Amino acid sequence: QVQPVESGGGLVQAGGSLRLACAGSGRTLTNYVMGWFRQPPGKEREFVAAITWSAGSTLYADSVKGRFTISRDNAKNTVYLQMNSLKPEDTAVYYCAVDRHFATRLSARTGDYDYWGQGTQVTVSS
């Protein structure tokens, strides 16, 4: 079983940057589509970004396009989310997720992902 583990969250001022990391524990993440999701306070979990196993294709939510970048280093078994120009509305718990069924199908649906990390808190102050 793949167990993703997130890190890199914290408190940052609006306009600042953070880089989240998601490392695979137990098995390699190399063969899977990886996604980042977030859950703002009092709201449902929402899609942020996804990347294919080869990093050849990516998918972003409209709300983060041009500000966030998803990438992966398969040699390090790690997926990253670089977040720039952060806004207070980006405040949320950020989750890393694994789609173990596909290596190339990008999905924004939470139900298509099988394994989830415990989440890391990102707080953006105004």
Textual characterization of the structure:
The structure is a single chain. This protein has 126 residues and is mostly beta strands. It has no helices and eleven strands. The protein is 0% helix and 48% strand. The strands form two sheets. Strands 2, 4, 5, 6, 9, 10 and 11 form a seven-stranded mixed beta sheet that branches. A four-stranded antiparallel beta sheet has the order 1-3-8-7, with no helix packed on it. A hairpin with a 6-residue loop joins strand 5 and strand 6. The radius of gyration is 13 Å and the shape is globular.
Uncertain spans: none
Number of helices: 0
Radius of gyration, CA atoms, in whole angstroms? 13 Å
List the helices and strands in order: EEEEEEEEEEE
Globally, the shape reads globular
* Count of distinct strands: 11
Overall pLDDT metric: 94
Percentage of helical residues? under 10%
- Strand content of the residues, in percent? over 45%
Class of secondary structure makeup: mainly beta
**What composes the largest sheet?**
7 strands, mixed
Span between termini: 40 Å
